[in-house]
């Protein structure tokens, strides 16, 4: 008996077909891409612009070899919210631009010492609990949004809309197949939005008044030491997660991108994309697992489709009505989505520990995880010379220090 599989698509496509597939890839990423700016108060059109530019810069750094799309990172939601409230958007963007330098430093480390150097400095026992804190720290935000606490929504309306949105997203994520399974966020937002329409909770006037063509809102960054020191350590977790993203697309395509073009090049590309996005007023970029899933589903391994996805994102960012429409999405709809998304981030942290078979009964591992979790959930902060370190950034620094200071068990050290 012989088995046939669909042959991977690499180069043999017309430009028109590549453009169409690229639009499809953008559609897969769209829900998550625009969600970050909508939650953090940044401009959604700018996020589209910087996702496109970031993807093109990544392709430039990697020699256009890796079929990956970069867009808004969920890991930075809470830090952006805190930064905007504390220092304002320009200073937050300046801090995030500097956070991109973490990727560049790790890229240099990998170039000089090899990919194994990352594992030694940032093992799962360090990265796992930090990712958990990223998700758990956002849980109150999701609940407040779902209950409509920050807006003038009635409790019953808020609960109805947010729960319908959440249940729709859950059902699509669990029961659907094919391309639909990759866009549960899009489905959840659509159903929640339609329900809000029927309930009279949406004002379309901003969409009608918005021009078809409009320049994205570019923010000139400012550089404040406190903001930079707060945001720098936060880049560690998504930078290490980047390695998992590259390994995933390598597995899907059957090519070892860790070796060629090299992990140092992909980290460099992600770092430059993150800094460039922040310098323009957009959220930091990261690799999108949803798009990797779409690549696996379509078996379209041609990196040119990501070029087209980036071009589409840039083109759409200049449509004023798109941004105006996205701004009409009620926060109670986003709250329903966020209860799943933020919880999923925490689960990623747990799976990081589980996959690595971290022994939490071993005293060293227990101490690192326990201290990081307590600091994160308990909102611990440290004030040194007028500079405050708190939240995810403090957790990341503490986890790294404990990992370097606490002695390893004999079998682990060997």
UniProtKB/TrEMBL annotation:
Keywords on record: Membrane, Transmembrane, Transmembrane helix, Transport
InterPro entries with a match to the protein in the record: NCS2, Xan_ur_permease
Main localisation: membrane
Subcellular location: Membrane
GO CC entries: plasma membrane
Gene Ontology terms for molecular function: xanthine transmembrane transporter activity
Similarity comment text for this entry: Belongs to the nucleobase:cation symporter-2 (NCS2) (TC 2.A.40) family.
Protein name per its UniProtKB record: NCS family uracil:cation symporter
Organism of this sequence: Aggregatibacter segnis ATCC 33393
Protein encoded by which gene: pyrP
């Amino acid at each position: 008996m012989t088995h046939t599989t669909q042959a991977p698509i690499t180069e043999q496509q017309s430009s028109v077909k590549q453009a169409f597939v690229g639009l499809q890839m953008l559609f897969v990423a769209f829900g998550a891409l625009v969600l970050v700016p909508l939650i953090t108060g940044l401009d959604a059109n700018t996020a589209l612009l910087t996702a496109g530019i970031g993807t093109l810069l990544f392709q430039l750094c990697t020699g256009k070899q890796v079929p990956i799309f970069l867009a808004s990172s969920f890991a930075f939601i809470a830090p952006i919210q805190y930064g905007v409230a504390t220092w304002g958007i320009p200073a937050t963007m300046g801090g995030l631009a500097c956070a991109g330098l973490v990727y560049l430093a790790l890229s240099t480390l990998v170039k000089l010492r090899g990919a194994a150097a990352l594992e030694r400095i940032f093992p799962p026992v360090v990265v796992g609990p930090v990712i958990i804190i990223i998700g758990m720290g956002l849980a109150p935000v999701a609940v407040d949004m779902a209950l409509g606490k920050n807006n003038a929504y009635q409790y019953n309306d808020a609960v109805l809309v947010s729960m319908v949105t959440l249940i729709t997203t859950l059902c699509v994520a669990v029961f659907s197949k094919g391309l639909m399974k990759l866009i549960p966020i899009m489905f959840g937002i659509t159903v929640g939005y339609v329900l809000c329409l029927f309930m009279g909770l949406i004002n379309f006037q901003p969409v009608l008044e918005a021009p078809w063509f409009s320049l994205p809102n570019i923010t000139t960054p400012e550089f404040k030491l406190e903001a930079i020191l707060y945001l720098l350590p936060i880049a560690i977790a998504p930078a290490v997660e980047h390695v998992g993203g590259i390994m995933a697309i390598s597995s899907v395509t059957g090519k070892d991108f860790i070796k060629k073009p090299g992990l140092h090049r992909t980290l460099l590309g992600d770092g430059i994309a993150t800094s460039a996005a922040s310098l323009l007023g957009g959220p930091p970029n990261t690799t999108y697992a949803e798009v990797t899933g779409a690549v696996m589903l379509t078996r379209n391994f041609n990196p040119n489709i990501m070029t087209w996805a980036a071009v589409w994102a840039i083109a759409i960012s200049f449509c004023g009505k798109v941004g105006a429409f996205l701004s009409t999405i009620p926060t109670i709809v986003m709250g329903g989505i966020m209860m799943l998304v933020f919880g999923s981030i925490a689960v990623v942290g747990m799976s990081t520990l589980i996959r690595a078979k971290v022994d939490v009964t071993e005293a060293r591992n227990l101490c690192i995880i326990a201290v990081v979790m307590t600091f994160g959930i308990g909102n611990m902060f440290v004030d040194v010379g007028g500079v405050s370190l708190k939240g995810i950034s403090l957790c990341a620094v503490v986890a790294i220090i404990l990992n370097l200071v606490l002695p390893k068990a004999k079998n682990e050290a060997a």
